[in-house]
Specification:
mainly alpha; 5 helices; about 0% strand
Length: about 100
C-alpha cells in the first residue's frame, strides 16, 4: 500500500517552505460594490436592531438635539403668526392667486 504523501516531490516541499506567512486578498469587484464600506460592527448593529420601532418625538425632543426652531412650529393647518410653518394647502388657499 502506498502512502498519501508518496506523490509529494522536492519541488512541492520547496514551494511549501516559501509560502507567505499572511495574505490579504483584494477583489476589484468588491471594491466598487455598494457593500464595500460595510464593517463587522455594521453587521452586528443590523443583526441586533429591533424588529419594529415606533418613534414618538415632539418639538422639545427636536430642540434638545441642538436644532433651532424658536418654538415657532405650531398649528400647521391654521398658522397665526408670520413665522409659523404652513402647509402648501394653506398657502394655496390664502395666496389669492
Amino acid at each position: 500500500m502506498q502512502s498519501v504523501a508518496s506523490g509529494i516531490a522536492a519541488v512541492d516541499t520547496a514551494q511549501w517552505n516559501n509560502k507567505l506567512e499572511s495574505y490579504t486578498e483584494t477583489d476589484p469587484l468588491f471594491a466598487i460594490s455598494v457593500a464595500f464600506g460595510i464593517s463587522t460592527a455594521d453587521t452586528s448593529y443590523w443583526n441586533s436592531k429591533p424588529d419594529s420601532y415606533t418613534e414618538t418625538q415632539n418639538l422639545s425632543d427636536v430642540l434638545a438635539m441642538n436644532n433651532q426652531a424658536n418654538n415657532q412650529i405650531k398649528n400647521l393647518t391654521d398658522p397665526t403668526d408670520p413665522q409659523d410653518a404652513a402647509t402648501k394647502a394653506y398657502v394655496d388657499a390664502n395666496s389669492g392667486g
